[in-house]
Each structure stands twice: as structure tokens, then as C-alpha cells.
């Protein structure tokens, strides 16, 4: 633990810390452009110069200098001030003065730091450098003349994303950042370079010229595009969500979000359900809320009613539906739309027990039936970190392009019954072994054999639980905690032949199997569910209602309401509450706080932010054998997995250009 | 306008009293493109030491119908009559038009129903779903 003196203040810093970190620990601000906590140290912007004694009598780059015992660091001396002014002057030599038309304006590191640390005026009369335009795909807008060569984007794609997409050409002043052969950046985390870019060189293409940061209302929310539950900030103006940015949460998403989470929000303004529709003579016709409620009451379903929850709904909506069905005398509730029927009597068996941050520590990982890059890009980042630390990773299932060293053991699930010796030995010998089951594995009934393997390998040990299930739906864990699961899956609902079916944003259900039922769709987007429904009631999307979400590791998180739902649409729970009146039953809540209180009273874990405790893993069933093949994964198109993304023009463009290789002609600018 | 209108209304041109007053006390000095007639008092320096000037409208008594060049003369900004005082109109100058508020020619902003209700996209717009669309 070296002791250093920062501006006369003596502090102790952790071993291996840099001088910059020491200054931050001492509460001193050190300006920087290239240094970033989650990336390797480059030391090429020179903005973090400080005076360090003992050492050469010149300012030193603090980000790349290890803190050593007895160092005397000054961040407030005349030398440091002059050094910063000089560096800033050099950076601004080739930086265009186009702040008024730059999208980074107002949230630009260069702008802020030149005000705080730069000279008052310019002494530069020569010509400025100009850089030819680069193309980086449908998400990243480039203005490379603004680039200050910090190389954060290069380091991000190399180190975090794990793909060599972005690099630099030439050197010195002539250096240019570009994608390889100017192809689009294809990685599913590629847009994080927009946040990383300290200047306006890389900005968001869909958000270009939309708004200034100071006009936006910032709302803290939770992402629903996958089951990771990334912490996001929803930026809105008036009634429209303009963009989504990640929030820092080291336990969940660190500082990143997937491109889908970031850019699907333009789908919130397209194909919206904003009025009530009732099917008359085979065609949906506009109607009023009263008519719809009367039509639902007219079915006289009694207890013959079922509810299916979709992938994006919040816990409150599901709980309100459960209460409504309970008041009617029915328990037919299900959330696994596609027909999965894994046992859920012990939720520890279907939880990501290692935790998202914990999986980084694993040293041997067996992944069964999960295309992790698409099912949870942020977990892929963690796995890459684990692999870089030396974890051995094996995969069972169809091959996909991994971003870390891994070995595919084949598509055949029977390999689990008889794993090769070296795999067995690695898993047995590992200190922190882990198994990850994906959606394809659950659908093929691999849960029981995986539990048997877990017991055999002793995955649960002191301070470590290596048994993980990776879900794909943001609503899944919350739904399971609320009991939205039947023993036989959705087949139980079909067998019960309900007279009334409530689809809560459920679009993946095969509605043809509910032939005799009056199908009521409560949701926000006109997708498969609304098209198949008999009555459509407009609800709210995730940005338009407060809600509780539980991610795949069982982490309870709360989201706030950012904007109002369009047209006649209402918050989902109010629709269910009104429906209760129409059906003549009482559900016991009249306001959102009452609803949440009732939910927490029934499932106390939902009332506490953070990891829910599901107890110990169930005992493995003896003789469980795996069978089947995983030739394909449930996600066929990463960019179009939910109704919001399917409505989004940006996501459709990504899908056609990045996944299907069609050359999309760029709109004339 | 018939004689009855002249007797009972006041909103088009001069009433009988004003016409009489104008012909007895006023000197007709000019007529603008719209037919409005401009007068000045024969007796000099009557109102607060300044010459009294007035207009008899040819049609509606709407002050905005006085074109810019006569407006200056009428308000005492200059004494020479516009025809002799001001340079001739340029070919690119548009004809003077009075205030159109309250008429069908009134300005309607983009997106107004009278202009077809079509406007550029704005924040908060959304596209709603309709079956089979």
C-alpha cells in the first residue's frame, strides 16, 4: 500500500494504482480523454499531466504512471496548469470549431475541459487537418475530422467486444480511425463507442440532430430487450422517448448496453396500439372501452379464464392479472409462451446463481444450448473476461461465432450423458466451475441432466454457486416468482379450454390453439398478438409505466415512468382493475402503491431491490438422461426479438444490413 | 352602394356628413391605387399647429388599406405628395395588400386544418396500428 502525497494531502492508495487513481482518491479532478476505467491504458492524449517528484523535472502522464511510495504529486502547480493549457491547445489545433452543429454539444468532454483547463483564445492561424468520412454502419454516425485520437473506440472493440472491427490507419497527425475496409460495425455492443467517444467524432446516427442534452428529461429505468435487466436512463422530450443510455451498475451491465436496448426505442412511436378494437364479423373495428368491457363480460366465462404474460411485462401487471383471475376463481396463468414446461417448484434451479458479475470469476464453464452473444450480449462480455483470465469454456449446441476461446462439443445433447474425459476433468478440477443453460437447453429438457452434472461436479460449494440458467425474456424471473407457470406449461392452459384468454403483451403464443376462447390482447404494439386477438385493449410499453423487473440472476429492479402512453392507451394495471369492475369482482387495490404493496405482501422478495434468495438447488433426479439436438437457437434475428424492436426502423435496418448483408442504400444527406 | 346605405351605414367610405365636410373644407390632393381619396384642410395649421390630413376610403373603412407611401404623408412624416416625393416603384416591389386577418386570404400556419392539416413531423408524433395495415 504505497503512501503518496497529493497536493500536500497524504493518502494511502491500493498497490498497483496509478497516479491518476491516487489523485482521484484524494478528491482531485484530473482531466483526461484517453483514460477509461474499463479499458486498458493508452496514455496518448497527454491531458492528465501532473507534476511528480521524484522523477524527471517535467510533467508526467498520470494515467500511465504507477503510484509509488513517497511520491509527491501536484495537480495545482503552475507547471501543471501550463501543461494542460498546452495539451489542450494542441488538441484544438485540428479540432473543428463546429460545436453549434455537433451532436456532442453539451455533453462533450473536449468542450467542458477546454472551458475548464484550456487557454482563453487561440493562437493558431494555419490550416486545420480534415479527414475523409468513414462509414460505420446504421448506428454510428461519424465525423472523423473531430477525432482527437484517444483510441477508446479501438480499445473497446478489441478488449470488451472482442472483435477487431475498429482500428487506426497511418500515424501521428495523419492517424485515422476506421472500421476494417469501412464495413459497418457489426458487433451487438458496437454503439457503446458512442458513449465512449469523448468528442463528437462518433455519435448516434438515429438520434442525429434530434435534441440537445439539456432539453431532455432523464428517467431511470430498466431495459427489457433481454433478461439481463441492464440499467438504463431514458431521455425523453415531451411525449417521446428520444434515446436510451446506459447507467453504471457494476453488478449488472457495468457501463454498457446492447445496441438493441439502445436503439429499439424508435419502435415506441410506430405501430402503437392507441385505441380499443373489437372483432366484428371477422374484422377488427374501433370501439370504446365500455363496449369492450361489456363484450368481455358477455362471455360469462366465470372461472374459465386464462392469462398468458408476454416477455416484456412488468411484475405489477402480472400480479394484477393474477389477482383478477384469482378473484374469478382461476389459476390458469403462464408466462412461457413458446410451450416450455421445465419444473419451477424450486426457482434456484432456473436462476443465474453465479450472478452476472460472479461468472467472471469462473474458471471452467460449460454452456448448453445458448447463443449467448444474441441471448445476452452483456453476459458474453463477462464470459470474455472469464476467458481472458484463463477460464476453459465448452459449448454444446449449434456453432456460433464466439468472442473468446471456446470449444464446441457438438449439437447433440446426448454428449452430456457421456462427456469427454478432458471436459469432465477440467470441470471437476476447477475451483469455480459453472454450467450455463440457455433457452434451447430448457426447451429440450436438459435441465434435469444438467442438475445431475451439477451434483456430480459439486458446482455448489462454499462461496460459489455455479449452476446458471440464462433466460431471454425480461419478464421471466418475475413471472416465475409470481407463479406464472403451470406444471405442463402452456399446454395446461390449452387443455383447460378457457372461454376467456387474457394475453398480456404475449405475441409468441400460437393463438390458433385457443380456438374457443375470446382472446383479449392487452399490450402496446400491433404485432402477432393484436392481429390474432378478438379484443385489443391498448396498454403501455416499458417506458410508459413504473414497474418491477427481475433479471435472469434474480435481481429485483425498479423502473420509473418516462412518458405517457399514446392516445387512449392506459397503464396495464388500470385496464385490469377496470376489467375487474366490469366482471363484478374485487381485486383489492385502487392505486399503484396499493397494487405494489399487495404484490410485496404476497411475494416479499419483490419489495427489496437486489438479489432474491431462492434457497438451495434441488436434488438431482437419478438417471436423468439428456436427449435431442440443438441445431438452432430460439433467437433467429438478434435485432428483431420483441414487438418494440420489430417496429423499430433502426432495428429493421440493422437486421437487413448487418445480419442479412443486403446493401442498404444510405438516404441522401 | 345606394343612397339608403349611405344614410344608414358608416362602414363603407364616408358618411353623408363626412362627405359634405370634405367637399366644403378639404382639398382633394390625390388618389391611391385602391381608389382611396386623400384630403387636406384648406385652412392651414389647424391641429396642434400641423396641417390636417384625412382619407376617404373607397370601400371598407379599414386603416390597413392605406398603402405605405400614403401612410407616411397621412401621418405627417413628409409634406410632399407621394407621387412627387418618393422614387418610382421598382419592378420587384409587390403591390400593397391590406391586412387579410378575418378574410379567406388570412395566413394559416403549416398544419392548420384550413391548410389541409399537413405538417412536418414533431416530437411526440407516433404512428398508430390498424388491422391489416
Automatic annotation (TrEMBL), chain A:
Pfam families documented for this protein: Fer2_4 (PF13510), Fer4_NDSU1 (PF22151), Fer4_Nqo3 (PF22117), Molybdopterin (PF00384), NADH-G_4Fe-4S_3 (PF10588), NADH_dhqG_C (PF09326)
Top-level EC class: translocase
Cellular component terms per the entry's GO annotation: membrane
GO biological process: ATP synthesis coupled electron transport
Keyword Metal-binding: yes
GO terms, molecular function: 2 iron, 2 sulfur cluster binding; 4 iron, 4 sulfur cluster binding; metal ion binding; NADH dehydrogenase (ubiquinone) activity; oxidoreductase activity, acting on NAD(P)H; quinone binding
EC numbers: 7.1.1.-
Residue span(s) of domain 4Fe-4S Mo/W bis-MGD-type: 216-272
Domain 2Fe-2S ferredoxin-type: 2-79
SMART domains: NADH-G_4Fe-4S_3 (SM00929)
Note on how the cofactor is bound: Binds 1 [2Fe-2S] cluster per subunit.
Keyword RNA-binding applies: no
Keywords: 2Fe-2S, 4Fe-4S, Iron, Iron-sulfur, Metal-binding, NAD, Oxidoreductase, Quinone, Translocase
Catalysed reaction equations from the record: a quinone + NADH + 5 H(+)(in) = a quinol + NAD(+) + 4 H(+)(out)
Cofactor: [4Fe-4S] cluster; [2Fe-2S] cluster
PROSITE patterns named among the record's database cross-references: 2FE2S_FER_2 (PS51085), 4FE4S_HC3 (PS51839), 4FE4S_MOW_BIS_MGD (PS51669), COMPLEX1_75K_1 (PS00641), COMPLEX1_75K_2 (PS00642), COMPLEX1_75K_3 (PS00643), PROKAR_LIPOPROTEIN (PS51257)
Residue intervals of the 4Fe-4S His(Cys)3-ligated-type domain: 79-118
NCBIfam families assigned to the protein according to its UniProt record, in alphabetical order: NuoG
Family: Belongs to the complex I 75 kDa subunit family.
Function of the molecule: NDH-1 shuttles electrons from NADH, via FMN and iron-sulfur (Fe-S) centers, to quinones in the respiratory chain. Couples the redox reaction to proton translocation (for every two electrons transferred, four hydrogen ions are translocated across the cytoplasmic membrane), and thus conserves the redox energy in a proton gradient.
UniProt protein name: NADH-quinone oxidoreductase
UniProt source species: Croceibacterium xixiisoli
Automatic annotation (TrEMBL), chain B:
Leader sequence residues: none
Tree of life domain: Bacteria
Annotated InterPro entries: NDUFA12 (IPR007763)
Example GO BP: response to oxidative stress
GO cellular component, one term: respiratory chain complex I
UniProt-annotated stretches for the region Disordered: 101-133
Name of protein: NADH:ubiquinone oxidoreductase subunit NDUFA12
Species name: Croceibacterium xixiisoli
Source taxonomy: Bacteria, Pseudomonadati, Pseudomonadota, Alphaproteobacteria, Sphingomonadales
Amino acid at each position: 500500500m504505497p503512501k503518496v502525497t497529493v497536493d500536500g494531502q497524504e493518502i494511502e492508495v491500493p498497490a498497483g494504482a496509478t497516479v491518476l487513481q491516487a489523485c482521484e482518491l484524494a478528491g482531485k479532478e484530473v482531466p483526461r480523454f484517453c483514460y477509461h476505467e474499463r479499458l486498458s491504458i493508452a496514455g496518448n492524449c497527454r491531458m492528465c499531466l501532473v507534476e511528480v517528484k521524484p522523477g524527471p523535472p517535467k510533467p508526467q502522464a498520470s494515467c500511465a504512471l504507477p503510484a509509488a511510495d513517497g511520491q509527491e504529486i501536484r495537480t495545482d502547480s503552475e507547471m501543471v496548469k501550463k501543461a494542460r493549457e498546452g495539451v489542450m491547445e494542441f488538441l484544438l489545433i485540428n479540432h473543428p470549431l463546429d460545436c453549434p452543429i455537433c451532436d456532442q454539444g453539451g455533453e462533450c468532454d473536449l468542450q467542458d475541459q477546454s472551458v475548464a483547463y484550456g487557454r482563453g483564445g487561440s493562437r493558431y492561424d494555419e490550416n486545420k487537418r480534415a479527414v475523409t468520412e468513414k462509414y460505420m454502419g446504421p448506428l454510428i454516425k461519424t465525423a472523423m475530422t473531430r477525432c482527437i485520437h484517444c483510441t477508446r473506440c479501438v480499445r473497446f472493440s478489441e478488449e470488451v467486444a472482442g472483435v477487431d472491427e475498429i482500428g487506426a490507419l497511418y500515424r501521428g497527425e495523419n492517424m485515422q480511425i476506421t472500421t476494417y475496409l469501412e464495413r459497418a460495425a457489426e458487433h451487438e455492443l458496437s454503439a457503446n463507442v458512442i458513449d465512449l467517444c469523448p468528442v463528437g467524432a462518433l455519435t448516434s446516427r438515429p438520434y442525429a440532430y434530434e435534441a440537445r442534452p439539456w432539453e431532455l428529461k432523464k428517467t431511470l429505468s430498466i431495459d427489457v430487450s433481454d433478461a439481463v435487466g441492464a440499467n438504463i436512463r431514458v431521455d425523453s422530450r415531451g411525449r417521446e422517448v428520444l434515446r436510451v443510455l446506459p447507467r453504471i451498475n457494476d453488478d449488472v451491465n457495468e457501463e454498457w448496453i446492447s445496441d438493441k436496448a439502445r436503439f429499439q426505442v424508435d419502435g415506441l412511436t410506430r405501430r402503437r396500439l392507441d385505441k380499443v378494437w373489437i372483432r366484428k364479423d371477422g374484422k377488427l373495428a374501433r370501439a370504446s372501452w365500455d363496449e369492450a368491457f361489456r363484450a368481455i363480460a358477455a362471455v360469462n366465462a366465470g372461472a374459465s379464464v386464462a392469462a398468458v404474460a408476454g416477455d416484456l411485462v412488468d411484475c405489477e401487471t402480472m400480479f394484477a392479472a393474477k389477482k383478477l383471475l384469482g378473484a374469478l376463481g382461476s389459476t390458469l396463468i403462464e408466462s412461457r409462451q413458446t410451450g416450455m414446461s421445465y419444473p419451477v417448484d424450486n426457482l434456484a434451479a432456473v436462476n443465474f446463481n453465479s450472478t452476472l458479475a460472479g461468472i467472471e470469476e469462473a474458471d471452467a464453464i460449460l454452456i448448453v444450448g445458448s447463443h449467448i452473444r444474441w441471448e445476452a450480449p452483456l453476459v458474453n462480455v463477462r464470459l470474455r473476461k472469464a476467458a481472458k483470465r484463463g477460464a476453459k469454456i465448452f459449448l454444446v449446441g449449434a456453432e456460433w461465432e464466439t468472442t473468446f476461446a471456446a470449444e464446441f462439443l457438438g449439437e447433440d445433447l446426448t454428449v452430456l450423458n457421456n462427456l469427454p474425459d478432458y471436459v469432465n476433468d477440467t470441470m471437476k478440477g476447477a475451483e469455480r466451475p459453472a454450467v450455463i443453460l440457455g433457452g434451447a437447453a430448457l426447451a429440450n429438457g436438459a435441465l434435469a441432466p444438467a442438475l445431475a452434472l451439477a451434483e456430480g461436479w459439486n458446482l455448489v460449494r462454499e462461496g460459489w454457486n455455479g449452476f446458471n440458467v440464462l433466460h431471454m425474456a425480461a419478464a421471466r424471473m418475475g413471472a416465475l416468482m409470481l407463479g406464472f407457470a403451470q406444471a405442463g406449461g402452456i399446454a395446461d392452459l390449452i387443455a383447460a379450454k378457457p372461454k376467456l384468454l387474457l394475453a398480456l403483451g404475449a405475441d409468441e403464443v400460437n393463438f390458433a390453439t385457443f380456438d374457443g376462447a375470446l382472446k383479449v390482447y392487452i399490450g402496446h404494439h400491433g404485432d402477432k398478438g393484436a392481429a390474432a386477438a378478438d379484443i385489443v385493449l391498448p396498454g403501455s410499453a416499458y417506458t410508459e409505466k413504473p414497474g418491477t423487473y427481475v433479471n435472469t440472476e434474480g435481481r429485483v429492479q425498479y423502473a420509473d415512468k418516462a412518458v405517457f402512453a399514446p392516445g387512449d392507451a392506459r397503464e396495464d394495471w388500470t385496464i385490469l382493475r377496470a376489467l375487474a369492475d366490469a366482471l363484478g369482482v374485487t381485486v383489492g387495490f385502487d392505486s399503484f402503491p396499493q397494487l405494489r404493496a399487495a404484490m410485496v405482501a404476497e411475494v416479499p422478495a419483490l419489495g427489496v431491490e437486489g438479489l432474491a434468495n431462492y434457497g438451495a438447488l434441488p436434488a438431482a433426479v437419478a438417471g436423468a438422461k439428456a436427449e435431442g439436438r440443438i441445431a438452432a437457437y430460439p433467437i433467429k434475428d438478434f435485432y428483431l426479438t420483441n414487438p418494440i424492436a420489430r417496429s423499430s426502423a433502426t432495428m429493421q435496418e440493422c437486421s437487413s444490413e448487418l445480419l442479412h448483408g443486403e446493401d442498404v442504400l444510405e438516404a441522401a444527406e | 352602394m345606394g343612397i339608403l346605405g349611405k344614410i344608414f351605414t358608416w362602414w363603407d367610405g364616408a358618411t353623408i356628413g363626412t362627405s359634405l365636410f370634405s367637399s366644403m373644407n378639404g382639398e382633394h390632393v390625390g388618389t391611391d391605387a385602391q381608389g382611396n381619396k386623400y384630403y387636406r384642410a384648406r385652412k392651414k395649421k389647424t391641429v396642434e399647429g400641423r396641417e390636417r390630413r384625412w382619407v376617404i376610403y373607397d370601400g371598407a373603412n379599414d386603416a390597413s388599406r392605406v398603402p405605405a407611401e400614403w401612410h407616411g404623408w397621412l401621418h405627417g412624416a413628409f409634406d410632399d405628395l407621394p407621387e412627387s416625393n418618393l422614387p418610382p416603384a421598382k419592378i420587384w416591389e409587390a403591390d400593397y395588400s391590406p391586412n387579410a386577418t378575418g378574410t379567406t386570404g388570412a395566413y394559416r400556419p403549416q398544419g392548420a386544418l384550413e391548410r389541409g392539416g399537413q405538417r412536418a413531423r414533431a416530437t411526440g408524433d407516433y404512428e398508430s396500428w390498424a388491422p391489416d395495415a
